[in-house]
Sequence to fold (189 residues):
Amino acid sequence: MIMANAAHSLSETDYKELHNIIMQCCQQHGVTLIALELRGSARRRVVEVYIDKPEGVSLRECADVSNAIGSAIDRIPAFSSTYRLDVSSPGIDRPLVHTWQYIRNIGRILNIKLANGTTIKGRLSSADNAVLTLSEPYDSSQSHAHSTPVSRKIASPPLKQKFGGTTMLSFPLVIPYDTIKQATVELEM
Fold:
């Protein structure tokens, strides 16, 4: 996911050059670019780079990638003014992008927004290259993290059942990745 705020005031050519440099630095350090975000003005630009890999990234890797990107950015004429570079792992609130990120979060609660507008919260029980499975629904207002499954039918795409005028999803729930608009890990209390 590559995001750029219009306020960053880089030409499309300079932005592509920046993106390519960051991608090369990430590849050289064995990490994946998850997101690139630019904020601020030409005089006070902020470059945020989010990196990850299947086993997670260390602070040392973030520092190494930051040093490499910083050295490379300094050679781009559009960055002759002051800028701040932040390189970090995606964090819990950053959307999941790659299949390996889902696999790494098995057992956690996901907040999923489907392309059809449906929002689902549930515990991730499995993930492969085509689908993920939520084993049970999750209601953050309950005092316990686990809630009782509505049904044991597997649904793909999500099967909805009517219960007294209310539509409920059947669990376990199998969701193809191509139906997911956005998924984030939900912080459990």
